[in-house]
Amino acid sequence: xxxxxxxxxxxxxxxxxxxxxxxxxxxxxxxxxxxxxxxxxxxxxxxxxxxxxxxxxxxxxxxxxxxxxxxxxxxxxxxxxxxxxxxxxxxxxxxxxxxxxxxxxxxxxxxxxxxxxxxxxxxxxxxxxxxxxxxxxxxxxxxxxxxxxxxxxxxxxxxxxxxxxxxxxxxxxxxxxxxxxxxxxxxxxxxxxxxxxxxxxxxxxxxxxxxxxxxxxxxxxxxxxxxxxxxxxxxxxxxxxxxxxxxxxxxxxxxxxxxxxxxxxxxxxxxxxxxxxxxxxxxxxxxxxxxxxxxxxxxxxxxxxxxxxxxxxxxxxxxxxxxxxxxxxxxxxxxxxxxxxxxxxxxxxxxxxxxxxxxxxxxxxxxxxxxxxxxxxxxxxxxxxxxxxxxxxxxxxxxxxxxxxxxxxxxxxxxxxxxxxxxx
Length: 424
Ligand SMILES: *Cc1c(COP(=O)(O)O)cnc(C)c1O
Prior knowledge:
Elements: H1 5-42, H2 61-74, E1 78-82, H3 88-99, E2 105-108, H4 117-121, E3 138-141, H5 152-164, E4 171-175, H6 188-201, E5 206-210, E6 229-233, E7 247-251, H7 253-263, H8 279-309, E8 313-315, E9 327-330, H9 334-346, E10 368-372, E11 384-388, E12 394-398, H10 403-421
Parallel strand pairs: 2-3, 2-4, 4-5, 5-6
Antiparallel strand pairs: 1-7, 6-7, 8-9, 9-12, 10-11, 11-12
The structure holds pyridoxal-5'-phosphate (PLP).
């Protein structure tokens, strides 16, 4: 791919400004890698742990040790990580069904949860399909103030009301990342404040965090600051681009135990589950995760700088510190949104010859255009972009397995947008 002088200049300027921020990102990556390697060493990780088990999978040392390592790294009492959790939505479903019982109340405190959870909770979809609502679990939602900060007053009020009514809120649910919403991403420190409030007012309430896209962007995870449960997908940050599929849950011993009874069955918990040769890619994925996340973060900062300089509204802006890997660019034009996604596709290692087209997607009210040229299907720790075809034509993107390839993808997107807008 040949880039114009203009693109090369934009890139050079960006990297000059970003050098101190990149150094900070490297420092976080080093810190997290050190934590992971210490835990590998203390737990005597050995090649025998990559051996395959079949059938029930009793005494799978690799699996059990990785669970222990995962707990240590996340600052949690317990954890499990499994290749046979199909995606983040299933991991979240396991966690929520593990904790919630008929008559319980779940309160989402960062506004609407991720799209796919609506049917799990039962605020969308068909009654009778087996959502939490079908099982008599009640749901309520508190919006962020100005799409930015947690509404501590409203949260305290609902906690107190339910304590006074004799039945504490069972789950306070918080999504760390903005996901595909136009809101701020919450930091681990802010989630720590939330935990403090919840535990002081309503100690029996579980704090559950949708941690997708947040892992290893900071030195600490929400479990380090007291969250009862964090949940995520292995084809995002914590799989390091190495895990082929899977999900994880970490948290307090009781919360994780309850989730484990939903993962398999009551009584069996984590004692079963054949790993069928997947252990190695899960170990390797965790080993790579801080580094790969750093690559994705740098790619996002670079994009924010380049597209910001080109005059587009970007969120976050280039010099803002991050707690997830998602970047948005508002293109204000359907053609530019398409041009952006086509540029990303062209700059991908796989399927670079494909031209993305806007398409109807199940669950979306407008057409969506998507770019993904990933080694692993749907992996969004690999550079990927999508945007709904409606004003203001915002493209959401994330990932980049290596900064070098992420940079090529972003340069390709910028060139495609410049060519289309006739600035070249
Ligand atoms: C990706 C994601 C999920 C889960 O989505 P899957 O596609 O099922 O892995 C949930 N919440 C957030 C914020 C996410 O980014």
